[in-house]
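Worked example 2:
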Amino acid sequence: MAITSYPFESQNTGTVTEPVYDRAITAEDERRFNKLRYVNGVFESADDGLKVTANGNMTVNVGTGGGHIEGALFYNTAPMTLTLAAADASLNRIDRVVAQFNTSVSVRAVNILVRTGVAATNPVAPELRRESNLYEIALADVLV
């Protein structure tokens, strides 16, 4: 079919025990439509806009809010605390707080996590991962 449109009520063309719906769409179809409407990023108008704040004790808080990554919409409904790895004794590093879209069968979600950098004289933040089943956007870089 050249044109896909939705939402329209699906009719069960199968049976009650083995339904077959004539207007069903996949999650991939939904993400394809969302990518037409949104760019990857955080929705600034939603709650705290996923604001990241340092606590000074090797933890950071991520506020409430939501966003869009590669067609997937996500929403964090409660503030969360993330723990950073212990600091190096003499060198700085840059950790990156990311929202990670992951279509792996074992994950199938967007999660917020810390990507730990490498301690160095001139540290740089970890590269964002952009793979066929995984895509990250940066929420904050944290100097450790």
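The radius of gyration is 20 Å. The chain has one helix and ten strands.
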